[in-house]
């Protein structure tokens, strides 16, 4: 355990705590989310998990008010009306509008107060929508998701190139990486202050980050069992370093006085 970051609170924000109509999908999501929480605890974080659909947006903001960092993890499509889209598109999943509203509010508050935030898969899309961006609702079958396979085989392995000089490249220590992904939606118009931080070989955006705030989103799953072993750990370290940098900035006026 990294004692340096012990007692720092990380909140892992999920979509929902139960999917009784889709047990196989829920089990897969829980494997991924549990890995995020477990690896964060190993890294020294005090971890709280909360399902955004199971509380009101006001309660979600209250529960996360003291968080030192946030991770918004994967799940269902964002409800289209939050980005001006229509329903009835190809590949449409269930929607959890309460979760969307709460998570969007979390991103907006994180930007306002400087809380480090990492979005994974759906979490990246929530970040983009929260800051005024929109989504391509369905992409043609390609490298980003295995199709017509059992849920346990849905993750596709492909390469991503990170933007040189990006915070993400600094965290991962290189610009050419292999990732595991399983998505059918992507960023279209970037939200305010966001820049593309990675692209796949087909040119689609695979990561984004804010130009001035400690907000990063990856479209892939660093927590997947077959992802490179240090990928999630490096992203967690990046969150911790962003938290420490924020703490130093907050404490600076007091020290100067």
Structure, briefly:
By secondary structure, the chain is an alpha/beta fold. Helix content is 33%, strand content 22%.
What would you note in describing this structure?
It is a single chain. Helices cover about 35% and strands about 20% of the residues. Helix 2 (about 55-65) crosses helix 3 (about 95-115) and helix 3 packs across helix 4. The chain is globular and about 50 Å long. With about 260 residues, it is of the alpha/beta class. The protein has six helices and eleven strands. It has helices at about 25-40, 55-65, 95-115, 120-130, 165-170, 230-255, and strands at about 10-15, 45-50, 70, 115-120, 135, 155-160, 175-180, 185, 195-200, 205-210, 215-220. The strands form two sheets. A nine-stranded mixed β-sheet has the order 2-1-3-4-11-10-9-6-7, with helices on both faces. Helix 1 links the parallel strand 1 and strand 2 (about 45-50). The mean pLDDT is about 95.
């Amino acid at each position: 355990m990294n004692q340096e970051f012990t007692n720092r609170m990380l909140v892992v924000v999920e979509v929902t705590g139960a999917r009784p109509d889709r047990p196989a999908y829920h089990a897969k999501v829980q494997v991924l989310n549990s890995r995020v929480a477990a690896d964060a605890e190993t890294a020294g974080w005090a971890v709280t998990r909360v399902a955004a659909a199971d509380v009101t947006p006001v309660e979600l903001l209250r529960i996360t008010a003291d968080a030192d960092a946030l991770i918004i993890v994967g799940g269902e499509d964002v409800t289209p009306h939050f980005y001006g889209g229509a329903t009835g598109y190809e590949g449409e999943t269930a929607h959890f509008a309460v979760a969307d509203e709460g998570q969007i509010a979390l991103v907006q508050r994180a930007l306002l107060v400087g809380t480090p935030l990492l979005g994974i898969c759906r979490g990246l899309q929530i970040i983009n929508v929260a800051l005024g961006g929109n989504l391509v609702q369905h992409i043609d079958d390609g490298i980003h998701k295995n199709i017509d396979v059992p849920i346990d085989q849905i993750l596709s392995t492909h390469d991503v190139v990170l933007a040189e000089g990006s915070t993400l490249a600094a965290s991962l220590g290189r610009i050419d990486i292999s990732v595991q992904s399983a998505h059918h939606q992507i960023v279209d118009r970037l939200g305010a202050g966001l820049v593309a931080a990675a692209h796949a070989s087909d040119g689609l955006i695979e990561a984004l980050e804010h130009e001035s705030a400690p907000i990063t989103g990856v479209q892939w799953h660093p927590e997947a069992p077959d992802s490179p072993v240090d990928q999630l750990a490096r992203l967690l370290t990046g969150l911790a370093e962003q938290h420490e940098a924020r703490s130093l900035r907050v404490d600076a006026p007091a020290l100067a006085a």
